[in-house]
Amino acid sequence: MKINIIGLGYIGLPTALMLASKGLDIVGTDIDNAKIDALNNRQITFEEKSLYDLFQNAVDNGIIFSTEKISADIYIISVPTPYMKETKKIDAGYVVTAVEQVLDICERGSIIVIESTVSPGTVDQFVRPIVKEKGFTTGQDIHIAHAPERIIPGNMIYELENNARTIGVDDINIGEKVKSVYKSFCKGEITITNIKTAEMTKVVENTYRDINIAFANELAKICHQADLNVHEIIKIANMHPRVNILSPGPGVGGHCISVDPWFLVGDYPGLANIILAARKINDSMPEFVLERIVDIMEWHDITDISKVGIYGLTYKEDIDDIRESPTLQMLESMKKHLANGVKVYDPHIKYDVVPNQYHSLERFLQDIEIVVVMVGHKEIVQNQEKLIGKIVFDTKNILDINKYLL
Ligand code: SAJ
Predict the structure, then answer these.
(1) For residue 401, how far is its CA from the centre of ligand 1 (angstroms)?
(2) To which CATH superfamily is domain 2-193 assigned?
(3) What are 351-392's pLDDT values in tens digits?
(4) DSSP 3-state assignment of 355?
(5) pLDDT recorded at residue 338
(6) Catalytic residue check, 196
(7) Would strands 142-146 and 165-169 be described as parallel, antiparallel, or unpaired?
(8) What's the pTM?
(9) Of 152, 348, 405, which is best to mutate to test ligand 1, by the most ligand atoms within 8 angstroms of its C-beta?
């Protein structure tokens, strides 16, 4: 049985490598020539714990990387699913194109598994019509499944092997077949359900997380106004056996939690009220951090913005992913409000993303007076003594030498 993983991004690549390392016959496809060249030259395309070892195993087991569409028995589609800025509905363009390309090469009886997170109803609305247009009958010529992933960047390989999964299908036998593929590496429980339930479940999971982070962020704003320490309050409140408040921070980034709730807002505008409020609260956090920076500058009589250094560009700690990063959102506002002299540094971002970006912690610290910690990378936790003498604003509450907190 041959499996073709289409889309070798943050989810598709580890999944392809994992399947290949278990001895399955795997092709990994991507439209990006540079990415395929890199993989064929044995270069891994992003930073992730244990990914390189997995890559070596997969290569030893004969994984193929290609930009050409290669026919297989099962196709796993793992392409981006952004939302449309105006309507907030899913932009299913990448999924549609990938399915069309599979339909051009697939054999009768093939299974197309959509792994990308999609808004509930996407398969009915976008995938089934293309299958029909191309002259196939779902359930006879072609089978469709939805098997959303749940892995977290920074701990992907462990979670790929250990998290429970959901598979949505029209036909239980197809569900069992897809399950056997995932069972080759997944020790977690795998639930088979229908496609729309699987679609909704995945979006609900990330929306739940977004709402809970928004609650913590709203508390941070309230406590700031009340002159209270939100972190101490959350710590004490969490000692209650049925309370588990998450951590406030400078915003919610990444391609999942800050995106998926919009699908429900876009499709159920009159009903998704808490969901919309949560999105707005989380999106307002970079601006809140910016207001706090202005306050801190005033308290210390610092008027020169070039004395401010922003630590962290990624959307969270110890990864190299800057998608929807709160720092980038904040720098966008800073461009409007402040002179563009603020300095930036991230140990995981080796190329220049913004002006005045440093590539050495020491040189970054030499040139600034205020350090705004936007991301809790291990590097800063382990080097916190280097911050002595600086004005520190720790938006993540990860340092022992806290001066200002969110
Ligand atoms: N954040 C907070 N406070 C918290 C937790 C997170 O401000 O208490 C922020 C982070 O700093 C980050 C954002 O939220 O900016 C999201 O981070 P995350 O670590 O919660 O999640 P992701 O986006 O890296 O990965 C999520 C995972 N979902 C979780 O519930 C942990 C993962 O399980 C999903 O598979 C993945 O999204 C996905 O692909 O959907």
Answers:
(1) 26
(2) NAD(P)-binding Rossmann-like Domain (3.40.50.720)
(3) 999 989 999 999 999 999 999 999 999 999 999 999 999 999
(4) coil
(5) 56
(6) no
(7) antiparallel
(8) 0.94
(9) 152
Strand order in the sheet with 343-345: 357-358, 343-345, 308-311, 370-373, 391-394, 404-405
What is the location of CATH 3.40.50.720 in the chain? 2-193, 205-404
Q: Which residues neighbour 403 within 8 Å (Cβ) at sequence distance 6 or greater?
A: 391, 392, 393, 394
Q: How far apart are CA 254 and CA 319, in angstroms?
A: 11
Using CA atoms, how far apart are residues 9 and 90, in angstroms rounded to an integer?
19
Reported as a single tens digit per residue, the pLDDT across 11-40 is 999 999 999 999 999 999 999 999 999 999
What is the sign of the dihedral through the CA atoms of 376, 381, 387 and 392? positive
Q: What distance in Å separates the CA atoms of residue 93 and residue 129, rounded to the nearest whole number? A: 14
Q: What is the mean pLDDT of the chain?
A: 96
Q: Which of 179, 256, 343, 396 is flagged as catalytic?
A: 256
The alpha carbon of 175 and the centre of ligand 1 are apart by a number of angstroms equal to 28
State the average pLDDT over residues 218-222. 98
Question: Quick one: residue 332, left, alpha or beta (phi over 0 = left, psi -120 to 50 = alpha)?
Answer: alpha
Its CATH architecture, for the domain 205-404, is: 3-Layer(aba) Sandwich (3.40)
Which residues lie with the beta carbon below 6 Å from any ligand 1 atom? 117, 149-153, 206, 209, 213, 246-247, 249, 252-254, 256-257, 315-316
Give the Å distance between the CA of 105 and the centre of ligand 1.
Answer: 36
3-class secondary-structure state, position 291: helix
* Residue 256 known to be catalytic: yes
**Of the candidates 371, 375, 406, 376, which has an alpha carbon nearest to the alpha carbon of residue 391?**
371
Residue 402 has pLDDT above 80, yes or no: no
